[in-house]
Amino acid sequence: MGIKGLTKIINKESPESINTEQLYKLSGKRVAIDSSLFIYKYLMNVRYNGKSLETENKKCTSHISGIFYKTILYLSLNITPVYIFDGKPPEEKNELIQDRKNKASKAKNEMKTVKTEEEKLKYEKQSIRVNKDHIDDIKKLLDLMGVEYLHMDGEAEAIASELCRINYVDYVVTEDMDTMAFGCPKLIRTCLDKSIKRNDFISVIDLSNIIKDLKLSNEKFIELCILCGCDYCPNIPRIGQVKALSIVRNFASIEEFINSKHTYNIPENYLDRFTKAKYLFTMYHDKLNPSELNFVKKEQNIKELINYLVNDCEISSSRVQNSIKKINNVYS
């Protein structure tokens, strides 16, 4: 879900914190990638004639194809990707996760009754869930490509944000704006300027500029994100991003706002959930030591990589070979 309305706040209050760049300008940089988000994205969107890519044995390969070409692009531009996988999430997210499972299950049932291919495709996409098999597929791919990754308990965007905050990587690549609440200094998203149609342009969002323009402390910025509505804490009914910004600017604390004269219906246990969310958004700050984390990076194996993609995943041999040619300098 991310942070409701945060992009709108940034566009209005701190537009210069969002810079449009060509991807090649990140040459020489290290980027942490929110793996599960992109696995899900490619399962949704990498298709042929509306259908997921599959082998003759009905093994889905949309995610493998998508991550392979994304990784090739980064490596060909001398950008070093570090993939971060989701581990066990905090219990505060259980309600949201169960809701997503229920929606996926409902969509799968709806697929059985629809009459048109368009409706079937709609519900099929809504039923997609990233599972262990998908993750294992991508780990195998990254092992063969010699690309670094990390899989530990916790949410990928939280871990990636802290790795960026302590300068282990230079950027975090994701579409989830809650990465900013976790303290990510520089976030890379798909280009937000819709007038630009080329896919080699990206948006780079700078947290320090946002906080400066909003005239908030880091703590107050986190409170703003929670008030807007996040995965750990629902928003207060009738409080959107504009009112949330007003509250953090005009009240010393959320407790002061709750105890003030207002007409809002505060959800039960809201203060407890708000306080817990603040903790979760900072729980990794100065707690991760990269030298103590189980990063995985195996020696690249081009022969086995080609065999895996062409024979096991049935991806076009010419496309695979041409892609690998783009990074000959990486694998020299």
Supply the CATH architecture of one domain.
Answer: 3-Layer(aba) Sandwich
What composes the largest sheet?
7 strands, mixed
Query: What would you call the structural class?
Result: alpha/beta
Question: pLDDT under 50 segments (min length 5)?
Answer: none
Number of helices: 15
Mean pLDDT rating: 90
Give helix and strand order, one letter per element, not per position.
HEEHEEHEHHHEHEHEEHHHHHHH
Tally the beta strands: 9
Percent helix, as a range, is: 40-55%
Q: Report the span from N to C terminus.
A: 41 Å
CATH superfamily membership of one domain: 5'-nuclease
CATH topology of one domain: Rossmann fold
Instruction: Give the CATH class of one domain.
Output: Alpha Beta
Widest sheet: strand ordering: 1-9-8-7-2-5-6
Percentage of β-strand residues:
5-15%
Q: Using only CA atoms, what is the Rg? A: 21 Å
Instruction: Name the shape in a single word.
Output: globular
Your description of this structure?
The chain is an alpha/beta fold and 332 residues long. It has a domain at 6-214: Rossmann fold (3-Layer(aba) Sandwich). Helices cover 47% and strands 11% of the residues. It has 15 helices and 9 strands. It has helices at 6-13, 35-45, 62-76, 94-111, 117-126, 132-145, 156-165, 178-181, 207-214, 218-228, 241-250, 254-258, 270-280, 302-312, 317-325; strands at residues 18-22, 30-34, 47-48, 51-52, 80-85, 148-151, 171-173, 186-190, 201-206. It has a 7-stranded mixed beta sheet, with helices on both faces. Strands 3-4 form a two-stranded antiparallel sheet. Helix 10 (218-228) runs antiparallel to helix 11. The longest helix has 18 residues, at 94-111. The chain is globular. The chain starts with 5 loop residues before the first helix and ends in a 7-residue tail after the last helix. 35% of the residues are buried.
